[in-house]
Amino acid sequence: MPERKSFKAKNKRYIAVAACLLISVLIFSLASAVSAASNPTFGNVAGGDSIDVRDVRLVMRKALELEDLTFRQRELADVNNDGIIDVTDVTMVMRKALGLIDSFPVEEAVDEDAYIVVSLYHDQVDGFNWPADSELTIKAGTLEEKIVTEYDGSFRFRDDDLEIKPGQTVVVSIGGIRKVHIIRDINITKIDPENDLIRGTIEAGSRVEVRVFEPGIVEFSNYPARFPISSNISKWSADFSKAIGDEKHYQSAYDIGIGDIGEVRFVDLTNDVTIVFWECQETSFTVVPEENRMYGSGWTPVSKITVTIGEDVYTTTSAPVDGFFWIEDVTVVAGDLVKVTDGVTTSEHVVTGLTIESLSIADKKVVGSAAPGSIVDVYLYEPFDGYGPPIEHEFETVTVDGDGNWLYEFTEEIAEDMFVEAFQFDDNNNSTLIRKVFGDITED
User: Fold this and answer.
1) Taking the alpha carbons of 197, 198, 203, 208 in that order, is the dihedral positive or negative?
2) CATH number of 7-107
3) Burial category of 235 from C-beta neighbours within 10 Å (exposed 0-12, middle 13-18, buried 19 and up)
4) Is domain 112-182 annotated with CATH 2.60.40?
5) How far apart are the C-alpha atoms of 346 and 39, rounded to whole Å?
6) pLDDT tens, position by position, 298-307
7) How far apart are the first and last CA of the chain?
């Protein structure tokens, strides 16, 4: 059996080839420089006024895994449009610097109507304007799958093993069409309804589209947008407090309020997209004492969450988009004062004595206890068969009687896998939650 070439041997071969290419460019680059546009252009990895030896050197070092490039530099270096930076890209950048070629293969993708949208934090890839009812190949992360487009040329790719991360490359191809997108690291760090500001981070020098709209609307184009460019420290800010013009709908001001939603997009040079969704929420948290866990939402994204329960302190980090957090293995009982802070906002909740004592499938009834005269919000859910949240069947608000007892009789037939969630909210919108499954606790 022939001996397999080691990675080191392959590296030596690449280095020898690249060294020859580099020498050629050193000789001819000054006489054969290609002008670069004011916006980034493919092959212009170093960001200079022309494609020259500096660009070849960077692409070569990346191909040899000797240097890391920024996301934008990786996009500019992949002139072969295959999602991989290798000796082929080095050769093409050198030939362009020498004036031996007029364009790169990747430039053909700029004019394609087909494009992909990668939903960061939702592990989802969508496509639009692809050939209808056709099989295409998608590579995302470690997965490679074949899927069929819909009648309108769209597709949606989700998989339990798909984990979208910034820096990954997504490649979608069919026939002569191939689109490559490097997932950008978009973070939302502040949703400020008081000042109508959305703030975040992305790679320095990147332009993002920030949009805001009311929930449930169908026509998004009538709502305002801002197009900030991130600073040299990667920060961007979108100010909706005042209009930026009066000629276009997107230039208008917008009063951001609780419940409003929106999105932040990064569009690359071939019109493919990384997208992040956001929602303006009130800060709140929920304590689940019988399961020793708690969670919250609406907190400052990507911030340190500190939870104090008596002398016990727990910490975690909130999610990048909605400020959601989740903490397990907390020690908490009825009567405990729970305090949560993200360094900007602080909120408290006293855990109530809410209980669910019994469930009856035959009588379609839930019975529990709580402080006399207090309010209990009761939900009936069915587990979702597949990916998604549980299905809500019923909701009712009940008042605890003078003896500290409450009950509710559901109108629907009950299955064993259905479950009840009972909440008690305080004036800060924080809550105590008790959750029981009919099959686990029943009188029948």
Assistant:
1) negative
2) 1.10.1330.10
3) middle
4) yes
5) 44
6) 888 888 999 9
7) 70
